[in-house]
Amino acid sequence: MPGSESLTATLQQSTQPGRGTLIINADDWGRNVVTTDRILDCRLHGTLSSASAMVYMEDSERGAELAKQHDVDTGLHLNFTSVFDAPHCSPKLKEHQDRLGRFLLSQRYTRVLFVPMLADSFQYVVSAQLEEYERLYGYAPLRIDGHHHMHLCANVLYGNLLPAGIIARRNLSFLPGEQGLVDHTYRRWLDHVLAKRHRMTDLFFRIPPVKPISRMVEMFGLADRYCVEIETHPAEDEDYEFLMEGGLTRCLGNIEVARGYNLPAAVTGTERGQINEPG
What we know:
By secondary structure, the protein is an alpha/beta fold. The chain has helices at residues 4-14, 33-45, 60-70, 91-104, 119-137, 154-158, 181-195, 213-221, 237-244, 247-252, 269-272; strands at residues 21-29, 50-53, 74-78, 143-146, 167-168, 203-206, 227-232.
């Protein structure tokens, strides 16, 4: 199967007994009231570690207050592709974000292109979101990921727009047989670039599809020995029901969900550049 050998190499090279961690992170905190409330439901239910917060969105202000009230561990969910709809967002910022969104969504491979004429817009939109997060939450974000994973686009990575040393989300990992060689090689190369400036988890998966259950058991089981992040979107019924109605519990075995987005000290950017990424 494609990826089988690289997954084996990862397990052989990055194993450090006792450092396993399962981080289940919900994306889109603050996007709108329904999304925020569903994420909070899951957090209070004990099935989430943390959330990624959007700024300049409909529910960003309330979301920040709820995070403080309920001790929700948040990072910045960098957004170029969903229109800023907060009332106080300036026309200038909306214009720059709209320009980036139209470019990134125009074709499948635009995110791999570094476009010099958009460099100023990227810098402006990233800086504005970093500043707004700090205004809302009272501190600079300790970690960053991206809406539609656009924090990994070429203009962000090669422009060094993410603060050095911050935790950043790696590319998606795949279990054996789930992804072909070309895409796997490109993702490994991107992670190597990211690892030069940032700390990352060992592995990163998304919850869907929740069937077959064997996939879920295998995925969560890796957290017995590795630092694994699982992405979820409780705004989607499939994810919400899985987290709230016992689906997660049935798949965990003896694995516990981390109470916050905490990377073991052994996980470093340098190490991430040395191991093979699962295909």
